[in-house]
Specification:
Blueprint (H helix, E strand, L loop, with lengths): L1 E4 L10 E5 L18 E3 L5 E5 L4 E6 L4 H6 L6 E4 L4 E7 L19 E6 L4 E5 L4 E6 L6 E6 L6 E6 L4 E5 L8 E3 L6 E6 L5 E6 L2 E8 L4 E19 L6 E7 L3 E8 L4 E7 L12 E6 L5 E6 L3 E5 L4 E6 L6 E6 L5 E6 L4 E5 L7 H10 L4 H5 L5 H7 L7 E4 L7
Keywords: Repeat, Ubl conjugation pathway, WD repeat
Organism: Carassius auratus
GO biological process, one term: protein polyubiquitination
Length: 406
């Protein structure tokens, strides 16, 4: 079963909410150092972190005022000078609504911002004061990604070009990290399942996804592709039943694959526009599941698109700028998505307000705590089982660009 995305539901500039301009514009397009490689909202949605290039991170209050949008100047703004290229940002602890509050130590920890640097160091800053709390050393190459566990603990996972992942317990001063080894290429991205049990990671030149146990700190399994490709991003769905993987090849363009992490079955493949003669020039740079509803945002060199998987349609198609975003992040309450740009800018886009169906909310509640194998063992009708395991989605999709939308 194959379907295609034709039609652009939302057009800019009506969905562009605000834009932050870098303090130091690039001297020449393509010059290194000015890129916004990471943008993040805090777990409660009240703060926004922006790596604005040249080793500078800005902490801003959200929502922005009109003055923020124009000049990125605010009395509550904090400037963190990291003195190294910033590749990754992560707020923690992440207080999950799915975990018992009594087990989250909600009042014991300040909100922290972890920053991954080009020299392999991770700096941890206190958000309320803008002061550096401590540094984490051990990586021998740039730290490309950071993520806190969503169970409210101060557990931080880092991915590095030194081909390792490290798991840090920030609540224990001086504790040595658990080191995960195995990849033979740079580790680009990592993601943690909503129940904080599994880490997914992808490498730059590899044909497989790595799944690790966050409980035993051991390798679990691969999700394997038939052909070599460059992996760029990964993210778990809100219930952990789907794992989205972004990848591309220099001659054939990009793919966005949805896997069942329990069974290692490929559920859906989304492909770049088959009518474009320059598919090899278009790279899928980032993707992110929305924390509200079944929305999946993905950014390539041509546009930012948001796919409503429940209704199987693109609800936003915007940011049509080939020199634009390299990262994206949803606001935790929905309604807004931020994209970081290669020239140091940040753009905030309006996300359509969609109400998830009752049956989808039931699926999320069930799948958060039950694996695919456990669901398949239930005495349920076939169509219900297909819905609960996401087998009812089309097997293949093609995303047509703006030029070929009809």
């Amino acid at each position: 079963m194959c379907s295609s995305f034709r039609g652009c539901a939302v057009k800019e500039p009506h969905d562009l909410i605000a834009e932050l301009n870098p303090a130091h514009p690039p001297r020449l397009y393509g010059s290194a150092g000015c890129e916004t490689w990471s943008v993040r909202f805090s777990p409660d949605g009240s703060s926004f972190a922006w790596s604005m290039g040249y080793g500078i991170v800005k902490l801003l209050s959200w929502p922005l005022t009109s003055e923020d949008s124009a000049e990125a100047v605010c009395s509550e703004e904090k400037t963190l000078n990291c003195k190294q290229t910033v590749w990754a940002l992560a707020f923690g602890p992440c207080l999950s609504t799915r975990v018992d509050v009594s087990h989250q130590n909600r009042h014991d920890h300040e909100l922290l911002l972890a920053i991954g640097l080009n020299n392999g160091v991770i700096q941890v800053w206190v958000v309320s004061t803008g002061n550096l709390r401590f540094t984490l050393t051990g990586h021998q190459a740039p730290v490309r990604d950071l993520v806190f566990t969503p169970n409210g603990n101060l557990t931080l996972v880092s991915a590095s070009r030194d081909k390792t992942l490290r798991i840090w317990d920030l609540s224990k001063k001086g504790a040595s990290p658990h080191v995960l080894r195995g990849p033979i290429y740079w580790v680009f991205r990592c993601s943690i399942s909503p129940d904080s049990s599994v880490i997914a990671s992808v490498c730059n030149l590899d044909s497989k996804v790595y799944l690790w146990s966050l409980r035993s700190y051991t390798f679990m399994r691969h999700l394997t592709y038939e052909h070599e490709r460059t992996m760029t991003s990964c993210d778990f769905s809100q219930d952990g039943a789907l794992l989205a993987i972004a990848s591309y090849h220099s001659t054939t363009g990009w793919w966005l694959d949805l896997w069942d992490p329990y069974t290692a079955d490929l559920r859906t493949r989304v492909e770049d526009c088959e009518l474009c003669s320059y598919r090899s020039d278009n790279l899928l740079t980032s993707l992110s599941f929305s924390p509200v509803g079944l929305l999946l945002a993905f950014k390539d060199f041509r546009a930012l698109r948001i796919w409503d998987m429940e209704q199987d349609k693109v609800v936003a198609d915007t940011d049509h700028n080939r020199a634009s975003g390299v990262c994206c992040a949803f606001h935790p309450h929905g309604g807004v998505i931020a994209t970081g740009c290669r020239d140091g800018h940040v753009k905030f886009w309006r996300v359509p307000h969609l109400v998830p169906s009752l049956k989808h909310l039931c699926r999320i509640a069930l799948r958060f705590s039950i694996s695919t194998y456990q669901v398949e063992a239930l005495p349920l009708p076939k169509k219900v089982l297909e819905y609960l395991t996401y087998r009812d989605v089309p097997k293949q999709k093609i995303v047509y660009c703006e030029e070929h939308c009809r």
